[in-house]
Amino acid sequence: MRIGLFATCLGDTLFPEAVKSTAVLLARLGHDVVFPPEQTCCGQMHVNTGYQREPVPLVRNFAEQFGDPSIEAVVMPSGSCAGSVRHQHEIVAERYGDAALRTGVAAVKAKTYELSEFLVDVLDATDVGAYFPHRVTYHPTCHSLRMLRVGEKPLRLLRAVDGIDLVELPEADACCGFGGTFAVKNAATSSAMLRDKMDHITGTGADVCTAGDSSCLMHIGGGLSRIRSGTRTLHLAQILAATRTSPHVLTEAAR
């Protein structure tokens, strides 16, 4: 299958290893991964903040970059960006776009997936040959859980990882408090939610907290490092890309 890889803003600027791991994993599974070089932001942050007309050029560019019929699927290591493409792009195109944009958005929407749902729903794969001999807990991000409804798919993938010690996260479905600009505009509330999330994570004794969104991991990871918890954050793609012959080496976490 020819797969178009969308990096996302955070992946491009702060967490490139999550993007690289997605490409490595998909290629290892036998697929042709292409990276449209002119891709930009999906426009999610504009829509979430109430600016629905402004991201029209971004939505149009996304549809153009990934609309190539030879690209059979668009995959991204982000539930929030996948949710934006599958839900918000249509809203923007209907309200402020033209017929060509609406057609392009519909075509790309139909073949866009978050990584875990692509692996499980499209490739019918849960055991991807990963090896990760560490204690791990999983945080389901809000957009993946509530907008995309990926459900147990990430956990099914993690349970099949060789060597992993997967531990349940108490109150896993509670938001971590990030929410993009929510963490800035409502800092006190965001911090309180983060404290609860960190308490649950540290209580598991996990070496690693993983998730499908770098944005939430950035928020959680910042908090865990400030309290010197010893728990690291790592994107799901990086765990799934690790193998016995090419293992992921954990860096020392602050304690």
UniProtKB/TrEMBL annotation:
<feature type="domain" description="Cysteine-rich">
    <location>
        <begin position="4"/>
        <end position="85"/>
    </location>
</feature>
<dbReference type="Pfam" id="PF02754">
    <property type="entry name" value="CCG"/>
</dbReference>
<protein>
    <submittedName>
        <fullName>(Fe-S)-binding protein</fullName>
    </submittedName>
</protein>
<dbReference type="InterPro" id="IPR004017">
    <property type="entry name" value="Cys_rich_dom"/>
</dbReference>
<feature type="domain" description="Cysteine-rich">
    <location>
        <begin position="136"/>
        <end position="220"/>
    </location>
</feature>
